[in-house]
């Protein structure tokens, strides 16, 4: 998703990846496409990576996350962490990919689900910050 965003003109993309192998694959894919700027690869687990970006005063329009499907609790943890940081702009959208049988919930971590899209065995939940 991040590479696609860059190809469509995203100003900046942060890839947060805890797996060294996956981080290296992202780097190789970016290099093969001759993408040399407007990205940063953060080699940390999701929660530490989000805190690091928040500490760097990053303000995101979109966050896409896709932990391994077996890590269902990670969805709630990431949404909760996002709700507690200043990482998101006011109208930001958070997109969570997961297996379609799992539902992270209509409300989670200070966010409301605004859309759910099922594609084969996978689903995407789109969230926005709860309005006061």
Please state roughly what percent of the residues sit in beta strands, choosing from under 5%, 5-15%, 15-25%, 25-35%, 35-45% or over 45%: 25-35%
What is the N-to-C order of secondary-structure elements (H for helix, E for strand)? HEHEHEHEEEE
CATH architecture: 3-Layer(aba) Sandwich
Number of domains: 1
Radius of gyration: 15 Å
Oligomer: single chain
Strand order of the largest sheet: 3-4-7-6-5
Number of helices: 4
Characterize the biggest β-sheet.
5 strands, mixed
- Secondary-structure-derived class: alpha/beta
CATH superfamily (homologous) name: Vaccinia Virus protein VP39
Shape assignment = globular
- What do we call the CATH topology? Rossmann fold
Number of DSSP strand runs: 7
Main attributes of the structure:
132 residues; alpha/beta; Rossmann fold
Short description:
The chain is an alpha/beta fold and 132 residues long.
């Amino acid at each position: 998703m991040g590479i696609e965003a860059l190809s469509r003109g995203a100003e900046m993309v942060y890839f947060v990846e805890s797996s060294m192998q996956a981080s290296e694959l992202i780097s190789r894919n970016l290099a093969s496409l001759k993408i040399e700027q407007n990205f940063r690869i953060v080699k940390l687990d999701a929660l530490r990576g989000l805190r690091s970006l928040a500490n760097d005063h990053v303000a995101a329009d979109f966050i896409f996350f896709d932990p391994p499907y077996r890590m269902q609790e990670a969805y709630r943890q990431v949404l909760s962490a996002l709700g507690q940081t200043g990482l998101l702009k006011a109208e930001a959208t958070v997109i969570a990919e997961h297996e379609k049988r799992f539902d992270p919930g209509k409300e989670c971590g200070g966010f409301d689900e605004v859309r759910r899209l099922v594609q084969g065995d996978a689903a995407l939940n789109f969230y926005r910050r709860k309005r006061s």
